[in-house]
Specification:
Blueprint lengths: L11 H38 L6 E6 L8 E7 L12 E8 L5 E5 L10 E3 L4 E3 L6 E3 L4 E3 L8 E2 L1 E4 L2 E5 L7
Antiparallel strand pairs: 1-11, 2-3, 3-4, 4-9, 5-6, 6-7, 7-8, 10-11
The structure holds FE2/S2 (inorganic) cluster.
FE2/S2 (inorganic) cluster binds next to loops.
């Protein structure tokens, strides 16, 4: 059957089948477009509609930390996604400066975000990705990092050390 045939000569069953298949094609196309578009639009709008809260997270009792030591502490991200699993955990480098004073640095390098390592014998933070180096106070010592390590506010509350979490810092 061809489109050039007069309408009166068309087989009504075939015309119905053609209309049905056209409708199925349109519905499938719309469904595929929605499957692709909805996550993309959600991702693009997420900074506007989903502001990550800043929350205080406990990283352990004060007595767990010795004066002068820098240790890695992990805690739950401030806005974990329901499906994040273990990736909802993040970390910081925490140093007890005095009996009452703590300092915390983001583990993320300010160059491209790789986790930096603390080298206790050199008193330096080292980024394994491109050789970025930071002094113990977080200032850049060498390499490509454009900014010092980001610092988190720290407080002691009810005998616990707490870090004010925020989205992974990007500077
Ligand atoms: S990510 Fe750290 S130096 Fe590049």
């Amino acid at each position: 059957m061809h489109d050039s045939e007069p309408l009166a000569e068309r087989d009504p069953v075939e015309a119905t089948r053609r209309e049905f298949l056209s409708m199925v094609s349109v519905i499938c196309g719309a469904a595929i477009a929605a499957i692709i578009a909805v996550p993309c639009v959600g991702f693009l709008l997420s900074p506007l509609i989903r502001r990550a809260p800043r929350l205080w997270r406990s990283v352990g009792p004060v007595n767990n930390f010795q004066v002068g030591q820098t240790v890695e502490v992990s805690f739950l991200d401030s806005s974990p996604l329901a499906w994040a699993g273990v990736t909802a955990k993040t970390a910081a480098w925490l140093r007890r400066e005095t009996e009452t004073e703590f300092i915390a640095f983001s583990v993320n390098c300010t160059h491209l975000g790789c986790p930096v390592r603390w080298l206790p014998h050199a008193d330096l933070f080292m980024c394994p990705c491109h050789g970025g180096v930071y002094y113990k106070d977080g200032q850049v010592a060498a390499g490509p990092p454009p900014h010092p390590l980001v610092r988190y506010p720290v407080q002691v509350y009810n005998g616990e050390v707490r870090i004010l979490t925020s989205p992974i810092p990007t500077v």
